[in-house]
Specification:
By secondary structure, the protein is mainly β. The protein is built from six helices and 31 strands. The protein has one domain: TolB, C-terminal domain (Neuraminidase, 6 Propeller). The strands form seven sheets. Strands 3, 24, 25, 26, 27, 28, 29, 30 and 31 form a nine-stranded mixed β-sheet that branches. A five-stranded mixed β-sheet has the order 8-9-11-12-10, with no helix packed on it.
């Protein structure tokens, strides 16, 4: 393992108990693994002008509706939720928050504000006589109000993150007919980035159990570099956490705190906190086979990680990044080879370093954008695997959760993509003209556990398919036709731009 010691780092090395800076935290490259097919599913309607801000759309998440329709909802951070059927096509606008919430804003830059996520109540399309029928929640942003329910630490407030509740008259309607709405929770934030991420209900929680109807809310550390205000390790701050609340209004309160949350009654701690020590957990999901929560936490300068969500867990940020220690000063970007409070923090189940993404490429950023445990049947190649998406490069990785020892992070493999009989990359199909060629990849799954990919910038939606029964091209003519299809896709895009207890995109010139 190679080390270097910057003059700045050496100046405070003795006070941090770190012995050396780690140059390449995960030295072994991620090896090529299995391949799957990539099928075009549809393209979301444009919500912006790429000649102005570089984005045709700002797709963020894809989620199924729990009914027999097979419908999928996708949200655009500019303010819309759209619906598309199981056969694909162009998603049609179902809900526009800009028509309902006057204070909604996605004006902050970088673009980590807006309608960041939504969650359908488990009974959204279920029994009309039961609570939660027709109810869904959003987490979105507004200008600072000075009326936040919970306040993140900082010297100023850039915006508020707001959880809203909406109720529709008919969950099956192609357009949301809002018959009631209210504000549930408001959290102030010091910077424009590392704010609200996923909100979700545990899909495995059955009615009558303690976790049914409890809303999980992911918040980053408030933004900037190194968690300069110390939010993630402060249990009195909502930032750098996953919160858990009962969003149903009761006794005059907009929400209640579940009595089985880990810090209820603890002096100096928020009862809403379920887990802490996270930098930017924009995406989390549950493994339908094991019931484990999987958290994709975006790193800073060195590492991206996946954590197993667990009640009361502390994942170590900003004292650690991945399994490595960080320096005592928030502005130090390095990681060190000495353990950081060994035993006090929950280790990630998987991690990869930025060297993996930068190697042999023009990329200068890296961020994990999704984690999904595959539970479908259409991809036997991925049976039992957990799939990760890399936002900037558009690469996909996967691992076998049974290989996790409980201590050492698992070994990742790269998931290859094949379209029309030829190997392709999402960078070829959806990489934009910004110098790092970023894809802005998002990952989702339908109600059957099948996997979908979303290009945030262009609005393209792909579905993964099996190659097991797909023959290779029978002739050069088929290969040439395939190249033509891929070339057409490239031209189309370039017109827009040149469980245990722990358990800047720019317009073309």
């Amino acid at each position: 393992m190679k080390y270097r010691c910057l003059t700045l780092a050496c100046a405070f090395l003795a006070s941090t108990a770190h012995s050396a800076v780690v140059m390449n935290p995960v030295s072994a490259p991620i090896a090529a693994g299995t391949k799957v097919g990539l099928a075009f599913f549809g393209q979301a309607q444009a919500s912006g002008n790429p000649a102005v801000d570089g984005y045709r759309t700002r797709l963020q998440t894809l989620q199924p509706v729990k009914d027999k329709s097979g419908r999928l909802f996708v949200n655009d951070t500019r303010g819309t939720i759209s619906v598309v059927g199981p056969s694909g096509g162009t998603p049609q606008t179902w809900f526009d928050i800009r028509d309902k919430v006057a204070s909604f804003s996605n004006a902050s830059s970088p673009s980590q504000t807006g309608l960041m996520s939504f969650a359908l109540h488990p009974n959204f399309a279920g029994n009309p006589a039961q609570a939660g029928y027709g109810v869904f929640y959003t987490v979105d942003t507004s200008a600072p109000s000075g009326k936040a329910t919970l306040a993140g630490k900082g010297t100023s407030v850039d915006h508020d993150n707001v959880v809203h509740e909406f109720r529709v008259s008919d969950p099956a309607s192609p357009v949301a007919d809002i018959v009631a709405q209210r504000e549930v929770l408001r959290v102030s934030q010091p910077f424009s980035d590392h704010g609200a991420g996923t909100i979700a209900f545990n899909p495995g929680a059955a009615p009558g159990t303690s976790d049914y109807g409890k809303l999980y809310i992911g918040f980053g550390d408030g933004g900037g570099m190194g968690d300069s205000f110390g939010n993630a390790q402060d249990l009195g701050s909502p930032l750098g956490k996953i919160l858990r609340i009962d969003p149903a209004a009761a006794g005059g309160a907009p929400y209640t705190i579940p009595t089985d949350n880990p810090h209820v009654g603890q002096t100096g701690a928020l009862g809403e906190v379920w887990a802490n020590g996270l930098r930017n957990p924009q995406n989390f999901t549950w493994d339908g086979a094991t019931g484990q929560m999987l958290i994709a936490d975006i790193g800073q300068s060195q590492l991206e990680e996946v954590n197993i969500g667990a009640k009361g867990a502390n994942y170590g940020w900003p004292t650690r990044e991945g399994t490595f220690a960080r320096g005592a000063n928030w502005w130090d970007p390095d990681v060190y080879d000495a353990p950081a409070n060994s035993g006090a923090f929950v280790d990630p189940v998987a991690q990869y370093d930025h060297e993996e993404i930068f190697r042999g490429s023009t990329y200068w950023l890296s961020a994990i954008s999704g984690v999904v445990a595959y539970t479908g049947t259409a991809l036997p190649e991925l049976t039992g695997m957990v799939v990760l998406s890399e936002l900037v490069s558009g690469r996909l990785f996967y691992y076998d959760p049974l290989s996790y020892s409980g201590t050492t992070p698992v070994v990742l493999s790269e998931l290859g993509l094949v379209q029309n009989g030829m190997d392709v990359t999402l960078n070829q199909l959806d990489g934009n003209s910004y110098p790092d060629g970023r894809v802005d990849l998002r990952l989702g799954a339908d109600g059957n556990g099948e996997l979908y990919l979303l290009s945030k910038t262009f609005g393209d939606i792909y579905r993964l398919s099996s190659l097991v029964a797909v023959p290779e091209p029978a002739s050069w003519m088929m290969m040439i036709a395939g190249f033509g299809l891929i070339g057409g896709a490239l031209r189309r895009r370039r017109k827009y731009m040149s469980i245990d207890d722990r358990g800047l995109i720019r317009a073309p010139r």
